[in-house]
Amino acid sequence: MARAAVKAKQAERAKSAPAKRRAHGRRHHAGGGNPNQQLFFTRLRRQAKYIYVLLAVLFAITFAFLGVGSGTNGGLDQLFSNLNIFGSGGPSVSKAQKELQKHPHDPKAYRDLATAYEAKGDTADAISALQQYTGLKQKDVKVWSELAGLQATQAQNYLAQYQNAYTARQLAAPSESFLPTGKLATAIGKSPIETAQADVAQNTLSDLQNKVQLAYNGTISSWQQLTRLQPKNANVWFELAQSAQTAGDTTTAVKAYKQFLKLNPGSANEGQIKALIKQLGG
């Protein structure tokens, strides 16, 4: 009876007590997230679209103000000129080759193909294309000069490879320097492993030596053609002399140096060139 009286009093108190007010504040999502926070990021993404549009407009106005794409090589166009993203950059190799197939005797097709190869850094194929071009346009001084420059670059690259190959040849058989001579050397013999390595290195060295010589010969030939096209151009004679001297063609070098002094009397380097001519056996 006592327990029933206590429960009855508790029930009366619960009915008479005022209803609890619901706490104000952020509602918690059933999944544990915050829906207000999610809504905030949704609004931010919507507003970002307008910000991107505004930035794009400002970017375009800035480019126009700085002269980008106007052909003046000013502003950011000059800064990004090497990236080749604002201009056409010339034809691609595949496009130039297709054009050449359609017009195999068109000098411009070879000119475009050479430009495409140069853009790729393919010096050898660029030289080949320019040689085809000069065969059709034999009096194009500008292209002959460009060809000579490419051939000189190719010769220097081959020369650097030759120097590395020469070092590799020495390292391929390091014991050769310490081997005795005569009958004792025959009795001892050579290491078969070193001999095989040395043979491979020697073949590479000989191949590069031929490439160096051919590249320099091509350079000399191109400058000689330019001296025929511009016989009174002292700079062309000087370039021929320099190329011939580097290639070891002292006869051509001396002749070209003398012609340079004849066309350019009183040159500031006259004394040095005369001494060089004497040194070369002129």
Uncertain segments of ≥5 residues (pLDDT<50)?
57-88
How would the global form be characterised?
elongated
- Please report the number of helical segments: 12
Strand content: under 5%
Major beta sheet, specifics? none
What is the structural class? mainly alpha
Distance between the termini: 141 Å
- pLDDT averaged residue by residue: 75
Number of strands: 0
Order of helices and strands: HHHHHHHHHHHH
Helix content: over 70%
Q: What Rg, in angstroms, do the CA atoms define?
A: 40 Å
Structure description:
The protein has about 280 residues and is an all-alpha fold. Among the domains are: about 55-85, no CATH class; about 90-140, no CATH class. The chain contains 12 helices and no strands. Helix 4 packs antiparallel against helix 5 (about 105-120), helix 6 runs antiparallel to helix 7 and helix 11 runs antiparallel to helix 12 (about 270-280). The termini are far apart.
Secondary-structure blueprint of this entry?
Layout: H1 2-16, H2 35-66, H3 75-79, H4 93-102, H5 107-120, H6 123-136, H7 141-172, H8 183-188, H9 192-229, H10 234-247, H11 250-263, H12 270-279
Helix pairs in contact: 4-5, 5-6, 6-7, 7-9, 9-10, 10-11, 11-12
